[in-house]
Amino acid sequence: MKQKSFPKRGTPARKLLELLSDGRAHDRNEIAQLIGEDMRSPLQDLRGKKYRYWYIHNVRIKGERQTFLKLDPRHLSGDEQLDALARAEREVLYLLGSYSHAKSAYLRLTKLSRELVIAQTRLFELYPEAANSPQFRQKKDQSEE
Fold this sequence. Notes:
This protein is mainly α. The chain is built from 4 helices and 3 strands; from the N terminus they run αβααββα. It has a 3-stranded antiparallel beta sheet.
């Protein structure tokens, strides 16, 4: 089944997409007021796999302190090839970001695993009975995540 690009009517993601579909850059505060909640989740949904990678740019406007959001004009062009190209670019950027986060998490996990073994060893040397306490042992569902 083909994924749908458009969120259901009335959802925060749909409201955000409708607002951005005028092609202008929109102030994040304006967006928050219009969709009535934090826009982080709807924005992530639109930019991600759920709605097929809408390319929504963060834009800095000279003289303004904050960033604005703007829908890539290729989505509005009416040209399926340009729309597909914008989505393909966004998917690559999304996956590069996901890859970077996963790599960082793996590196943190590796480092923390070593630190945990050292700390447990120190504790068990000072207080051998602690080795029998489940609170000082890694839970089975955490062991190889």
